[in-house]
């Protein structure tokens, strides 16, 4: 079964390129350029991982992360940023992000993290 991923980034070109590369790797990919739309899609869909840009116009990635974790605490979220700092990384992890990666992401590493997210999600949903 393929991994289901939601990619969220306000840069349409990067979003399209990442989505295409993820699909080539056999993943089922949904995309959006809107933080609000991402929250709606998260409510409606079951994703193995959500990959979110840290800096977006409507709402930053940390705010989106908080909103997702409030409703779906087991959701695996990976943040992307062009300006990685130790402080942002620590804050993201503290808020429940699986990881924070620099943009443009190394797609091999990102693919591996998404697969790991699916494994984590499946193990949490099995229960005792």
Structure report:
The chain has helices spanning 12-24, 35-44, 61-71, 86-94, 107-126; strands at residues 4-8, 28-32, 49-53, 77-81, 99-102. It is an alpha/beta fold and 128 residues long. The protein has one domain: 3-Layer(aba) Sandwich (Rossmann fold), CATH 3.40.50.2300. Strands 2-1-3-4-5 form a five-stranded parallel beta sheet, sandwiched between helices. Helix 3 (61-71) links the parallel strand 3 (49-53) and strand 4 (77-81). Helix 2 (35-44) runs parallel beside helix 3. The longest helix has 20 residues, at 107-126. The protein is globular.
Which terms would index this structure?
128 residues, alpha/beta, Rossmann fold, 5-stranded parallel sheet, globular
Summarize the structure.
This protein has 128 residues and is an alpha/beta fold. The protein has helices spanning 12-24, 35-44, 61-71, 86-94, 107-126, and strands at 4-8, 28-32, 49-53, 77-81, 99-102.
